């Protein structure tokens, strides 16, 4: 893997050259990880034309620092814990006679930026913008392999839950059990707090689990994702508790299922980022849900659970091949509950079979 | 409680007047919560001489927004989800003819600050600095009551764990069980990821739990804290597994116990912030642990798990009455493990009995 990281750094160097700056200072944790493999620990990366220098806190356990992770072409600068690694990297830029240093203005606070300017002697600061985030949009096959494993873990945890007795258990307990199961199956951690909503809480996007207990006749919405080697996925399913769903439940589930399928099927290289959202939204609106959903139908996913691109009705970019995204519409009827169905998929051309579904748990309306 | 929030806002208004600015824009989540009671949701607070306006995402569940929480003297500005509430608040400042608006430069990124400047017409931006964090250092008795409950929850979870069988269980499982128990006992959530380290992982400050299983003869270090109504505590204990600790374990535990006690006993109103650290450090250094600990012995704690003041060897401020802090030295011997003992306490004068211990689990070297 250290070759892949070196290749990414080389691309960032080319970007810097093309932008007329000598060097980049990368502070955003997911970007540092993308360029070095270093897990989030407050590290900062200084990348000049000739050198790569990772400023790290000096109290990391050996398995998180270590040259074996970083490869031979990247130096380490150990910084006392509790001090800002970006300041150490900026000082180093001054010593290395960097003239123009691009920093991540969307990541640095105003105060931290001022401190960097204060210590980087003879250095002019420029804005790197979201250059690294842009590089991260299209994933390589190593990254997609990690996402596949993350999806398998989430699917396994969910399928085990479906085999257990749910009535009488609280949302909080079910959420904690799902988290534990994902970790048992090899996840680094849950990619985000597991959301379990039952009854009137079902169908919400990020419902915080409560002490409400699952009851006969409830809709139950589960939103979960595993994180594997830093890469996360997200999936949502809605089930019904008890023998037979009510007619309104069958109808609402079928509607959201159709909307989600329309969104998924709209994915493809060259397609406008707004198209999947509009496709899903049209299905919901035609059925009279005119003001939902408020959120974009999906977004990119990878080292961050919500990253570029955004798939909202006003997003005008074009989707690329090998971009993992979520597609997850939902309808929530206040006081009654609702349905949410979400998958993580990878954009692929039709010649390769179209969008690759990573989260494969059934989307049928199971009665549990 | 809405009176208490209003009184806090009035103090911030006085600070603004004294600093020669018309208004403040508060964006840091813990500061917004301190001034309004609003849980973290991306809200921003605009506070002018006459008005308080809370800009909130428009998709919050009713129990998290709502005027009942906010009191009558604070207006709400609902902002479409996925847009920045700070921009909406800054625009409002322009409409309200604010001339000088103090913003939190330590919270805003350079990019966001630039966007605020762009939308706040006719408004000059100034720096509010850490004025609200400064107000938060000394807690009122309502806040201390919440911290007491948070500490009780953590103590209960820990005492239940000590009654169960530990040998053969993994660090991850024990950590998840502690988290579940805290939530069962009424915590909002764990205040930070529970750390469980056994054997060579014991004694570390923020060890991420692994699949290592607890073995006979191990040191076991647990670092945990509950969050209750937004207020968190932190506590650490180290135990030994099996019938009888080895002599080196008894000796090291006794040493860290003495260092922690020295740190605790040094707390008092008017005492320099460096004194508890130096007191604990002296005990460890006299025993030959000359390079440990790298970290300050403690820090303030409340709406953030690590907030002002810092209790490090170079911190020169004076402690105040009613400041909750942690005191938690530790020694880790690479390859062998170590001991960490931490409490959350409230600084109180001797007339009131001295430091108030919130986390009361025994600090004896229990053999489990």
From TrEMBL, chains A, B:
Keyword line: Aminopeptidase, Hydrolase, Protease
Keyword Hydrolase: yes
Pfam families reported in the protein's UniProt record: Creatinase_N, Peptidase_M24
Creatinase N-terminal domain residues: 8-138
Residue intervals of the Peptidase M24 domain: 147-348
Molecular function in Gene Ontology: aminopeptidase activity
Protein name: Aminopeptidase P family protein
Originating organism: Kitasatospora arboriphila
């Amino acid at each position: 893997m250290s070759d892949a990281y070196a290749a990414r750094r080389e691309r960032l160097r080319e970007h810097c050259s093309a932008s007329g700056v000598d060097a980049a200072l990368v502070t955003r944790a997911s970007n540092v990880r993308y360029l070095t493999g270093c897990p989030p620990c407050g590290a900062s990366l200084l990348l000049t034309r000739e050198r790569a220098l990772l400023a790290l806190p000096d109290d990391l356990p050996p398995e998180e620092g270590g040259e074996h992770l970083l490869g031979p072409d990247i130096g380490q600068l150990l910084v006392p814990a509790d001090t800002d690694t970006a300041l150490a990297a900026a000082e180093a830029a001054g010593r290395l006679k960097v003239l123009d240093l691009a920093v991540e203005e969307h990541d640095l606070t105003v105060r931290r930026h001022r401190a960097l300017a204060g210590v980087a002697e003879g250095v002019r600061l420029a804005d790197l913008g979201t250059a690294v985030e842009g590089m991260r949009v299209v994933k390589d096959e190593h990254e997609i392999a990690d996402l596949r494993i993350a999806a398998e873990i989430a699917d396994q945890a969910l399928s085990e839950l479906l085999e257990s007795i749910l009535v009488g258990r609280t949302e909080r307990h079910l959420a904690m059990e799902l988290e534990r199961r994902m970790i048992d199956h090899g996840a680094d951690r849950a990619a985000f707090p597991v959301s379990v909503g039952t009854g009137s809480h079902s169908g919400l996007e990020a419902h915080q689990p409560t002490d409400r207990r699952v009851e006969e006749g409830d809709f139950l919405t589960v939103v979960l994702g595993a994180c594997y080697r830093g890469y996360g996925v997200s999936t949502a399913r809605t089930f019904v508790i008890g023998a037979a769903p009510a007619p309104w439940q069958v109808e609402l589930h079928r509607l959201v299922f159709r909307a989600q399928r329309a969104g998924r099927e709209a994915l493809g290289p060259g397609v406008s980022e707004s198209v999947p959202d509009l496709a899903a939204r049209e299905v919901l609106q035609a059925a009279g849900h005119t003001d939902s959903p408020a959120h974009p139908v999906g977004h990119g996913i990878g080292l961050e659970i919500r990253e570029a691109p955004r798939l909202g009705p006003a997003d005008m970019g074009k989707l690329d091949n090998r971009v993992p995204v979520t597609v997850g519409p939902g309808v929530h009827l206040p006081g009654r509950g609702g349905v949410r169905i979400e998958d993580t998929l990878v954009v692929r051309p039709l010649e390769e079979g179209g969008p690759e579904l990573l989260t494969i748990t059934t989307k049928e309306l199971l009665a549990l």
